[in-house]
Give the backbone structure.
Amino acid sequence: MISFQGVYKIYNTHSVALEDVNMEIHRGEFISLVGKSGAGKTTLIKLLVGEERPTKGRIFFAEYEVAKLSNKELPFFRRHVGVIFQDFRLLPTKNAYENVAFALEVAGRPQKEITELVPQVLDMVGLIDKLHNFPHELSGGEKQRVAIARAMIHRPELVIADEPTGNLDPFHTSEIINLLLKIHELGTTVVLATHDKDIIDNLGRRVVTLDHGRVIRDEEKGKYILA
């Protein structure tokens, strides 16, 4: 499904973010990316969604070669990918329903479809009773669940979670990880980038470890082990 082939990202002679990354991610996998701050996790994610382009190498997502997509093609490609961030990135002047609906509105989807889909996805994340609440009225865990609902609204083939529990307490962290596992069980490929050792060790799934831009470990049932 996803293939990194000899990928480099070099910002300048003193900043090599990724170096000769070769990696395959198969459809339906749940894979964790780990590494210290600056190891290259976020750069890898930016390359995968076409936010940045590799200095060298090729990245494929299904039939797409990501770096060759035009600015016109990128929005359509990104509907195949849902991204969840540490800081939620919700619109503060819109309630939960409107935050999720906005993703469909900018894609030009008809109002009838929006009215039908948004409550469904908010129900899936357990927030059907909070659809009229604004971000400042929600807990951190609830905000992240709205963000997950927004990421899922296009029914993406891939969900990328970039440090999704970094601002959450242990209880809400467990909630979010269980929700990602539920999404994975529905057939969605999940890529989780995290610093949380407990999450990784409890998942018992594939772990790819990055260090100074290189993949130094790729284990089918990995643990959080840093160089």
User: Anything to note?
Assistant: The chain is about 30% helix and 25% strand. The two ends are 29 Å apart (CA to CA).
